[in-house]
Amino acid sequence: MRIPQYDKPLPTCEGPKLKPFHDLKAIVKLKRLLSNNAEGHAHVFEATIGSKSFAIKIFKFYDIEEDRAALLDRENEQVSDDLLRAHSDPFYNECRAYGRLEEKKLNGKVAVYCYGYITISADKEDQLEREFDVVDWDRPGEEYDKPVSQRQPFRAIVKDLVLKDVPLSAKIADKMLTDLRRIRRTGVYPGDIVLRNYKAGLLIDFSTARTEPFYLFNLRPGRQTQILKDSDLYMWERIRKENKLDTRKRAVRDEEYCANLRLRKKVARTSKK
Which of 82, 86, 65, 71 has the alpha carbon at shortest distance from 219? Predict the structure, then answer.
């Protein structure tokens, strides 16, 4: 795998890109924000630079083989490694989603504000383990046979730090749906709409987002593509139902919600064949 140049907008494929955050100086203090999450895509820290604090989401390393295994044979034949990586790596998912929001002047309005991406040298890995007990980075094993200077750097997204949350209410849920619809109109489909991905009513996570142009939208039949695009609407509906919120808005009609559940199960069975 070629290590990208981390001094220009990424990813290098067609579509939106995120710029590097050049204003970031030396981090003078680092504090862990989220507990260990072996299943997550990243670890999140509060970073103090000078007198300002940011949230820095440091991503684990991406294994392309997991996404290759999820594709059908004919799809694997049509998708290059570079394209699959650019559209499936959680780090690039965030880059593309925030790149599109920046294009549409929605950065910070429908999701927490993003400043850009940075890299953190591999020699910080021991420090992260020693100070924060973080060891699950999924770094390729062969890299540990190389000198530290030749290992891939960590990749991170820099965002506004939001520490104070607000209780979920019907009003907040309505705003979440309004923002979600605005995001979707830009060609970004966040996918993972769950409460842990919100702070103070703002979406903070795009690591599973699908941003147009997206390779699967051109490979899958229209019905399956629509299911991929609409999954976040149904996830919002699940939040509304499970929390018994008397909202003014609906993402989909109740009968559509039930029909979608049945259809998703049917498509999942078909895709495995």
Answer: 71
pTM of the complete model beyond 0.85? yes
Using DSSP's 3-state secondary structure scheme, residue 269 falls into helix
Pairing of strands 198-199, 114-120: unpaired
List the domains of the chain with CATH numbers: 29-271 (3.30.200.20)
Q: 3-state class of 55 per DSSP?
A: strand
**pLDDT value at position 4?**
73
Whether residue 30 contacts residue 45, with contact meaning beta carbons closer than 8 Å, is answered with yes
For residue 90, what pLDDT band results from cuts at 50, 70 and 90? very high
pLDDT tier for residue 264 given thresholds of 50, 70 and 90: low
Rg (CA), the chain: 19
Cis amide leading into 213 (omega within 30) = yes
End-to-end CA distance of the chain: 31
- CA dist 140 and 197 (Å) reads 28
